[in-house]
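This section describes the prediction task in plain terms. A model, or a person checking by hand, is given the sequence of a single protein chain and must write out its three-dimensional structure as a string of tokens. No templates, partner chains or ligands are provided. The sample shown here is typical of the held-out split.
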Amino acid sequence: MRDFDFNNKLYVITESSISKGRSNEFVVKEAIKGGAKIIQLREKQWDKNKIKKEAIKLLKICRKNNVLFIVNDYVDVALEIGADGVHLGQSDMPISEARKICGNKLIIGLSTHSVEQAVKADKEDIDYITIGPIFKTRVKDYTVGTSIIKEILKKIKKPLIAIGGVNKENIGEVLKQGVKSVAVISAVAGTEDIKETTSELVERIKTQP
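The expected answer:
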């Protein structure tokens, strides 16, 4: 799966605390019906055992629908259950160590928050880079803004995914900067009609200039 095409995709990330009492399984199924092609299990408050159990359930749904499934933080869990990939942050284990553990079996994504971090990430043995938060989010009150996207795209070769506060109202502003794919959390998990909102976001990505 390391040759996955990350262009023109909506990347949906779970967060059960904002999904209005609906399970991650429900959110993921509805998001996939709406056209999401990448799903990430991200539950920062959960222990590893709970993450693993949930990951097994979500992986089955993704496999059935030919959707990429990524586990946040845990390389060992992703590898053990046969997920497609793992997503790491700046303070997680070094990429070289993660790659040593998983070899070529996992896609690895890395979060970045500046041009410098993105340029450095481009030289690492990873498969995609996220940049954000583009806009303010519930948990992050700093932003990197939209113009950073264009600047980064001039300097890197790996796929770039914009994240952080992106929603139906501002996705156009993000796509205008040249980024091909967008990751969302609350814009999908926290919306009333998950399928419809996902579908709208996917359409915007597909019809970008």
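For orientation: The mean pLDDT is 96.
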